[in-house]
Amino acid sequence: MTAAPSEGRAALRDAAAVDLHAHTTASDGTATPERFVQAARAAGLSAVAVTDHDTVAAVEPVRRLAAGAGLHVVAGVEMSVHDAEGKEVHMLGLHVADLGMVERALAAVRKARVERARLMVEKLRALGVQLGMADVLAEAGGGAVGRPHVARALVKAGRAATAQAVFDNWIGAGKPAYVEKQRLAVEEGIAIIRAAGGIAVWAHPGAEGTRERVAALAAAGLDGLEVRHPSHAPADTERLRALVDELDLVPSGGSDWHGAAGGPRVLGCMHVSAVWMELQLAHLAGRAA
Ligand code: AMP
Ligand code: ZN
Ligand code: FE
Ligand code: FE
Question: What is residue 15's predicted lDDT score, i.e. its pLDDT?
């Protein structure tokens, strides 16, 4: 069906999909900046956010590769923070302006990730699972070190069939070789994101995103909620969308892509309307005014 001429432009714009949550080789994604941009173009996205764990190192390389391709690259980051009760919250910083500020603010957290990986390697060895720290660092390739690198290094070494099995048996939360990550307080995370000119969005809140918890974070300066995420049950997506309106927040959504070539979590799979990104930018502009 063809749209009436008067609504043609709006319809086109509404149809343009964005993806506001994805990882690259700068953290635990497997897509290099080159593959990242190829995937975003192949998915027909008008905008894509680079949201690596604790680093913005891939933002400029992705921007350079996307230049002239009609693809807007949103500078982002995903931080692990803890709330007042000590519960973990993943916080996305989106539309960050001062990349240097974010990178410096998270340097200690990235360093702590290396030490944490070292502890996991020691715990694995104590369990009789031999793994060299050098192999983990090689897997990370200079990016922010994470559990997926430990998992992939073990698969490469022939000590596990799949990365998932490594999480299930050893390094998933509560498993024998699991080591907690150093986490900033949620107020610290929000302060870094806002000082750098971005908006703070609670990543994949799911069922944990109760009205009470969202309201507490909103009081601490939270700007938005990731409403659409592959892990969300439809009922939670609806509930979170309503909370966004009720608490005057902005909606966001993305695939949380880590580089898989297929499957349920590929870039663009959440089909987030570009209108949501425009709401975010309007919110930012309003905050500055
Ligand atoms: P880290 O930040 O080092 O704790 O690693 C977190 C990343 O590990 C997530 O972004 C996922 O990519 C992956 N991950 C976490 N938990 C699991 C799990 N149970 N199974 C598979 N992958 C997981
Ligand atoms: Zn990850
Ligand atoms: Fe996350
Ligand atoms: Fe993520």
Answer: 57
For ligand 1, atom 16, the nearest C-alpha belongs to 172
> Do 109 and 96 meet the contact criterion of CB atoms below 8 Å apart?
no
167 lines ligand 1 (CB under 6 A): yes
**For residue 91, how far is its CA from the centre of ligand 4 (angstroms)?**
9
Global confidence as pTM: 0.93
**Separation of CA 226 and ligand 4 centre (Å):** 11
Q: Which domains does the chain have, with CATH numbers?
A: 6-106+185-288 (3.20.20.140), 111-171 (1.10.150.650)
Instruction: Work out the mean pLDDT of the chain and round it to a whole number.
Output: 94
Kindly state the average pLDDT of the residues 76-99.
97
Whether the CB of 28 sits within 6 Å of ligand 1: yes
pLDDT value at residue 288: 79
**23-48: per-residue pLDDT in tens?**
999 999 999 999 999 999 999 999 99
